[in-house]
Every structure is written in structure tokens, then in C-alpha cells.
Amino acid sequence: MHPSDISILPQAPSPSDQRAGRRTFLKYAGGIAAGMAPLMAAQAQQAGASAKVDFPPDHADSEAPEKMPDPGLPPAERIGYAVVGLGRLTVGRLLPALAKSRYSRLSALVSGDPAKARKLAQQYGLAEQSIYNYDDFDRIAANPDVQVVYIVLPNSMHAEFTIRAARAGKHVLCEKPMANSVAECQQMIDACRQAQRKLMIAYRSQYEPLTRSLLKMARENRLGELKEFISANSQNMGDPAQWRLKKALAGGGPLPDVGIYCINAARFLSGEEPTEVLGSMRNNPADPRFREVEESVQFTLRFPSGFSATCSSGYNSHKSQFLRLQGTLGWGELDPAYAYEGNRLRYGLLQNGREVIHEPSIAASDQFMLEIDHMSQCVRQDRQPHTPGEEGLQDQRIIEAIYASAQGGRVIRLAPPGNTRGPEPRQEG
Ligand code: NAD
Predict the structure, then answer these.
(1) Per-residue pLDDT reduced to its tens digit, 295-315
(2) Residue from 184, 243, 391 whose mutation best tests the ligand 1 pocket (most atoms within 8 A of CB)
(3) Could you report the per-residue pLDDT of 176-235, keeping only the tens digit for each?
(4) Active-site residue list
């Protein structure tokens, strides 16, 4: 597959991208200490040369030219992020993604664990004064180095910290699920609107190149008329004491945690919104892990065109993550889908009455980095994020409808939400 099949392409460097020399960039790429920004900006300007170092081709003309990486903006011109919650996702994925991003940089950490925060601050080159805790978080209003607050806390805390961040004058990037109820989602949207700050929900799959490639195929009608979406997202949980198994903190079990990926993918791949929801659920209170949340959930979403999504999500089976989109002229599948890395795309298309199966190889790219840089570009260019609060609100409406259907044993009808998405990421730059 040609790289142009990927919708999110590296942004063309702006004139300001051109200022920093490569050495200057590398020196500061791991993050900057608070207060160093003006010095770095000056150094970046003094460098005067293009930030991207290129070389003349040294292979035959028939070979693809070797591309040097785009180093992005000089650190002082990047959007600064305060990351709230230093758990597995932050430490394992988000801090590394910020460090290799092109338009973003880490500028503060917010944690209830000062020792862990100090350790990470040291690792990523942050000064101690850039560390906040949950109580003094609101002081962040006075920190001009922070433009975006990235909320990576248990689900029940997303609304509180989004509202506090917006009141502190910061834009918000919030992990999925957006919150634990439709009412909380609406409060988050209202708070950001009132403060005139952007709100984006971190739906990384919508920025992931293979998933975007499948989306492009669907939009170009290469699968024909879309008919069915089939997907599972399950994993096997351990420690019964963890917050994901506590209803008050998690809002539910596998449905809001991992089943949400299936809901969201069915919606963005079809481009439609479900009007009917049918759910069933397995509760298993004999297992200490499932005293408060469901063990598994199955659901069907029906869409106005006749398209349907059949999905399953559980917390008691070996990790299984796949999706398959079926149309009148072919099918496309990701197996695994929704994974942090190693997703695999295949599609089968009718060609002269026969099915031909393709497995394109697309260069891996960190979806967390793409998602964070999208938010940064939206802030820099004053654009609406592709996955704003309305996108998270709509998934929460569907989650609540699935639970209501499973409990009442009946189909729940949903009114159309209107447009829930901002412009495609490809329209940036
Ligand atoms: P985690 O348990 O590893 O980390 C949670 C963090 O919140 C910890 O640092 C913990 O100390 C802190 N915390 C504060 N108050 C807490 C409380 N009352 N109980 C428990 N922890 C508390 O969780 P995680 O996997 O990093 O998930 C955090 C958020 O990110 C969740 O909303 C989750 O859904 C989301 N997430 C998204 C993805 C993705 O791929 N986009 C992946 C994992 C998690």
C-alpha cells in the first residue's frame, strides 16, 4: 500500500519549523525544564538552519528514497502538556509518546505520589516546581508552560479534573471513557465551552494508520455498501481490588473500558449513528472480580441504512481484539484491532468474480503520538479536534442504552445526536 493511503501524514514543516538545527533539537528532545523555554527559543533561532537534516540519495533510482525523520517544532514552540495521573498508560505509553512527538512536549506532572512524580520528572527533564498534586492542581492556572491538561485518571475522576482544568484556562485531552454518565459528559462539554477551551477525547484508534486505511477504503466504497460490523475486545482481569472492577470508579466493567472501542469503531467506520440498541450481560458475583461489574457483555447496534454491529466484550477471557467490516463487494478486518502496536489489516475484495485477499504493510507509527500531536495542532491552529467531547458523550449514551437494554430485556431506541466529530486529521497542516 502506498504511504499516501494513510490519512494522517506528517505535517509539512511550517516556516517556524525550519529554525532549529538538528543538534539543538536533539539536545532538548527529552523534555525541558520549566523556565528554559526563552533560552531555547533564542538558541533555536540562532541555529538558523532547517530543522530537518537531509542527504542526497545513495541508492539506485528504482529504490524508494530514504526519508529522514521530521523533527517537528523547536521545543519552545510546542504545546505544553500537564499529565494528570501517573499510572500504567501514562508511564508506559503517553510520556514516551510525548517525548517523540513533533508538536507537543511534557511541561508538568500531576500525581498523588510525590516520589513517583519526582522520579518521572527526573527521567523526562522536568523541574520539581512542575510537579502538582490533586489538591494543589488548580495552581496550574498560573503556569503558562501548560496549555493542555491530559487526564489519565480512573474514569470517575475525568469530569472533576476536566472541569477544574477548563476553569484554570487550560485545554483538555481526556482519556476514554469520557466519564461515568451522560450527565457528567455534558457538564464537561459545558465547562470547556464556557471557558472557551478545547476538549478532545483520546480515541487513539481514530488516529491509528491501519484503522484509518480501512476507514478510507470504506469511504471510497471499495467494500461496496457496508452491511455488517463484527467485533470483540476482551481481556482477562486479575486483582479483584483494582479500580477497574469497582463500579463507582470505573462506571461499569468491560463495556466502558474495552467494549467502547467496538462501539466507537462501528460508528466511525460506518459514518452512521445507531438508532436501536440491544444488549445482554453476564453477571457472575460468585467470582470476587465481578461483584460490582459485569463479567461480559454482548450487544447489537442497528443503524438507519440497515447496517448493523454485533459486538462482544469481556473481562474473563484471554485477550482477544478484532474487528471485521463487511460490505457487498468485500470485507476488511483488523486482527488484532485496538492494540497498542502490532495491529494487522487484511481485506478481501471481489475482483472479476473472485475474492482476492490483500495484506498491506504500512510503516508503524505511534498512535498515541499521532493523537497527542493532533490535539496540539488543533490548539496551534485554533481548530476543533476530530474527536471532541460530543464523540465521547455519544458513546456514553450508547453504553447507557446497552445497560438499560440488558437489564430490561428490550430494544432501546436512540435519537440521532447530530454531528459528533470535527474535521478529519488529514485536513490539518
Ligand atoms: P492505572 O490504574 O494504571 O493508573 C491510574 C492512576 O490514577 C494511578 O496513577 C493512580 O495512582 C491514580 N489514582 C488517583 N486516584 C485513584 C483512585 N481513587 N483509585 C485508583 N487510582 C487512582 O490506570 P490506567 O490504565 O493508566 O488508566 C487510566 C485511564 O486511562 C482510564 O480512564 C483508562 O480507561 C484510560 N486508558 C486508556 C487506554 C487507551 O488505550 N487509550 C489504555 C489504558 C487506560
Answers:
(1) 999 999 999 999 999 999 999
(2) 243
(3) 999 999 999 999 999 999 999 999 999 999 999 999 999 999 999 999 999 999 999 999
(4) 176, 261
Cα-to-centroid distance, 247 and ligand 1 (Å): 14
CA 382–ligand 1 middle distance (angstroms): 29
Instruction: Establish whether residue 304 lines the binding site of ligand 1, counting it when its CB lies within 6 angstroms of any ligand atom.
Output: no
Q: Regarding beta strands 199-201 and 226-236, do their DSSP bridges make them parallel or antiparallel, or are they unpaired? A: unpaired
Which mutation among 83, 84, 88, 116 tests ligand 1's pocket best, with the greatest number of atoms within 8 A of CB? 88
Mean pLDDT of 63-88: 93
| Phi/psi of residue 414, nearest 5 degrees | -125, 140
C-alpha cell at 11: 505535517
345 CA distance to ligand 1 middle (Å): 29
Q: What is the pLDDT of residues 2-19, one digit of tens each?
A: 332 233 223 333 333 333
Give the mean model confidence (pLDDT) for residues 275-281: 98
pLDDT value at 89 more than 70: yes
Our answer on whether the CB atom of 155 is closer than 6 Å to any ligand 1 atom is yes
pLDDT (mean) for 72-91: 97
63 CA distance to ligand 1 middle (Å)? 45
- For the stretch 19-72, pLDDT in tens is 333 323 223 233 333 333 334 444 444 444 457 888 999 999 999 888 888 889
Q: Whose CA is nearest to atom 42 of ligand 1?
A: 89
Nearest residue by C-alpha to atom 8 in ligand 1:
87
